[in-house]
Write a structure and sequence with these properties.
The chain has 323 residues and is an alpha/beta fold. It contains 9 helices and 15 strands.
């Protein structure tokens, strides 16, 4: 009798369990959201979650008037950004630059073609580094390039240790790996990039390249990716135009920097950089949803057609990020 009663009770419990499972299955079949919640386990919420990510383009630029003087009273409606032929007037932010620290890499061409001007190059670099109004957090590095190599002279702390004597022991003469030097400099800037630090390359060269493994286009891509402005100091002869001069002008223009002849002197060089540092503006806008990997950029005046703008000529968009 006891055995029969136990069997009966066990049978009832199994029936109730089967009935409960049947009810859950029936409800889930008519409620997809609950079905997903049950299937995913008790640790996940049954409330649907919506995720979105908005990438933005951050563009540093400089505005000057018809006399090449910095514009101090620029307003948001004075310009428009053209991003791959999309005219953008709706900006997420428009501010004066908060860049207060510099990461400067000085590149010195020490190849055969510039040797007649090499001592002047070194004198200008010494003057630049010794007279610049550095801030405590600024980084200053100096590299030279000649033959098949790029030579490190000093890294990060050059404002306190750089002297002309440091350059005397380095190789000079031979071929010109200009594009390789640019790639090495920009890779360094990219690796230690920080939002509040302004990357700058000051390039002393005649613009010739005779041996680089890196093509010019690839070097320019790295310059754009680093966000650095290149201030190209042309050490070539001012009496005649050359392919090297045109190349330096292109490098400076595509980065949003400046091209200067060395004959204008070191004072003019760092005056240009400091003027830019104090007058830089930053605009941000939503990354266009579609388009090619590379986006070209122009800034155009909307009211005063005498306004001129300098900025990098584009950026690369890969997997939701812009750089």
């Amino acid at each position: 009798m006891a055995s029969l009663l136990g069997s009966t009770l066990r049978c009832c419990r199994r029936s109730r369990l089967l009935l409960a499972l049947l009810l859950v299955a029936t409800v889930c079949a008519h409620n997809p959201l609950l079905r997903a919640s049950v299937a995913s386990g008790p640790q996940e919420s049954s409330v649907p979650a919506y995720h979105s990510s908005v990438s933005e383009v951050r563009l540093v630029f400089f505005a000057t008037d018809e006399h090449n003087q910095s514009v101090t009273d620029l307003r948001e409606d004075d310009f428009a950004v053209v991003d791959d032929e999309r005219v953008i007037r709706d900006f997420r932010s428009f501010t004066r630059s908060a860049l207060t620290k510099l990461d400067v890499i000085v590149l010195i061409d020490s190849s055969e073609s510039v040797l007649p001007h090499f001592q002047q190059e070194i004198a200008d670099v010494v003057q630049l580094i010794s007279q610049w109004p550095w801030n405590p957090g600024d980084y200053v590095s100096v590299l030279s390039f000649s033959g098949m190599e790029v030579h490190l002279i000093c890294a990060g702390n050059c404002r306190s240790v750089f002297t002309a004597d440091l350059v005397k022991s380095l190789p000079r003469g031979g071929a010109t790996p200009l594009f390789d030097a640019l790639e090495i400099a920009t890779n360094t800037l990219i690796e230690r990039r920080q939002a509040e630090v302004w990357p700058v390359i000051i390039l002393f060269s005649d613009g010739d390249d005779t041996i680089s493994k890196t093509p010019l286009r690839e070097a320019l891509e790295k310059v754009l990716a680093s966000g650095a402005q290149v201030y190209a100091i042309d050490v070539g002869s001012p009496e005649r135009a050359s392919d090297g001069t045109a190349r330096l002008q292109r490098i400076a223009a595509e980065s949003g920097g400046r091209w200067v002849r060395m004959s204008e002197g070191a004072v003019r060089i760092f005056k240009d950089v400091i003027d830019d540092l104090h007058s830089a503006r930053v605009v941000t806008y939503v990354l266009p949803e579609s388009g090619p990997d590379f986006h070209s950029i122009r800034i155009l005046p909307t009211h005063n057609l005498n306004l001129q703008f300098r900025c990098r000529t584009g950026y690369y968009h890969r997997e939701g990020s812009a750089y």
